[in-house]
């Protein structure tokens, strides 16, 4: 067992930082040392920002996004197209689509994907509220923007069946060759999808 090299407060900081995505124990130690060295200009403001975020962050009761207001900033934006609803797995996916600035639609965050092997069924996801939300809104197209994984595709099929009786068009993101991609470096599944979903040039 490794000996403790710092007081319990610093050890706790390192342990918590190591739980963040992309940070292992070594990166967490480096991050902790950087924060400690920049105590006044970085550590204190970060601690304050985290405390305020913990106090004020809400999950949007409409779409499942996280914000400090409910409904969230996106749901409250009158410039959004209310006829388009993009269904995503996570808030990270919602934020990624927003960064791309490709569409100004409403969102519905599932909170994951169906995965029976991991014990994740429809009841563990934000699925039950989707048909009721569609009934009460002017949505005419549901865009399923889930990851191209087995779980993502299973979830997409489930959603399609769930809203089949409603007067909405269900579409999904295209899969295939990425911008700047070279065919020689793509996997067979991506190439097959690109050929299957080819469009007129």
Question: What does this protein structure show overall?
Answer:
The protein is of the alpha/beta class and 201 residues long. It has two domains: 7-40, no CATH class; 66-172, Dna Topoisomerase Vi A Subunit, Chain: A, domain 2 (3-Layer(aba) Sandwich), CATH 3.40.1360. It is 40% helix and 13% strand. The protein contains seven helices and six strands, in the order H-H-H-E-E-E-H-E-H-E-H-E-H. The protein has helices at residues 8-17, 25-37, 39-56, 91-100, 129-135, 150-162, 188-196; strands at residues 58-59, 66-67, 81-88, 105-109, 141-145, 169-172. The strands form two sheets. The chain has a four-stranded parallel β-sheet. The protein has a two-stranded antiparallel ribbon with strand order 1-2. The protein is globular, with a radius of gyration of 21 Å. The model has no long low-confidence stretch (mean pLDDT 92).
């Amino acid at each position: 067992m490794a000996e403790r090299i710092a007081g319990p407060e610093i050890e706790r900081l390192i342990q918590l930082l190591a739980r963040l995505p992309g940070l292992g124990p070594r990166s967490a130690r480096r991050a902790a040392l950087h924060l400690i060295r920049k105590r006044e200009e970085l550590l204190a403001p970060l601690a304050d920002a985290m405390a305020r975020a913990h106090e004020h962050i809400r999950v949007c009761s409409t779409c499942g996004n996280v914000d400090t207001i409910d409904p969230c900033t996106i749901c409250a934006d009158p410039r959004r197209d209310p006829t388009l609803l993009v269904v995503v797995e996570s808030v990270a996916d919602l934020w990624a689509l927003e960064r791309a600035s490709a569409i100004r639609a409403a969102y519905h965050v599932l909170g994951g994907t169906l995965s029976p092997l991991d014990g994740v069924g429809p009841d563990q996801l934000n699925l039950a509220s989707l048909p009721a939300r569609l009934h009460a809104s002017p949505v005419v197209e549901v865009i399923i923007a889930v990851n191209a994984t087995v779980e993502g595709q299973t979830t997409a099929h489930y959603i399609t069946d769930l809203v089949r009786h409603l007067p909405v068009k269900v579409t999904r993101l295209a899969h295939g060759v990425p911008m700047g991609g070279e065919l020689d470096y793509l996997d067979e599944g991506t190439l097959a999808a690109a050929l299957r979903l080819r469009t007129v040039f």
